[in-house]
Amino acid sequence: MGFRESLTSVDGMKITASRSKNLARLPAHVAIVPDGNGRWAERRGLPRLEGHRAGGKNMRTMVEYLNEYQVKCVTLYGFSTENWGRPKEEISGLFRILKERIDGDVPKLHKKNVKVRHLGRIGELPEWLQESIRGAEKWTENNTGLTLSLAFNYGGHVEIVDAARRIAADGVPPEKIDEKLFSSYLYTAGLPDVDLLVRTADEVRLSNFLIWQTAYSEYYFTKVLWPDFGKKDIDQALLAYSQRERRFGALL
What we know:
CATH architecture: 3-Layer(aba) Sandwich
Number of helices: 9
Strand order of the largest sheet: 3-4-2-1-5-6
Number of strands: 6
Oligomer: single chain
Shape: globular
CATH superfamily: Decaprenyl diphosphate synthase-like
């Protein structure tokens, strides 16, 4: 059994709807790298942005389904600090798609008590998109259900650098800096570390995503392209997670 298969295997067990909703252990925080949108479009003879649009539509479906499982936190990787190297037309298209999704999905998520927050350098985004993101955060800030974090203009290295800069700016003495304090300066302050990281489209890497927060995460990689990633795939990922033994460096 190869590396990828060992991470995704569930020993051939058949998953049923009733069983998948009654797992012994669920992750509190699921992070997703929704990869494969461009390939999905290309295989259908469509522009790449149509793949991103299809992927964007799938995000709300998956968030709502994870909410049914009563997962407490979901973080989605939408746009990395490295994505600025893509063609300008694609970048502007991704910005428009995010606004479309905020305008269309946040009202529905708000009704389900979902809280929305942004992770990343929001100040580098267009003002109209900043306003949309901040509006979603403000509208849902008092919700007490699932927390949906949108990592947009996010990079794990940048996050750690920004945290270090804020600590220095606050004049924190070196001897006072520990892991707990450092975590409180990250974009994800107040959120639990990631229990399960899911990446689609047969890619097996983190891509600078939540480097600090995934130190002891369980990984689940799948060949399914993100726009095709459905409820049965969520069931499969959560079942695989429930079968892992999490030791955090200790012996059980």
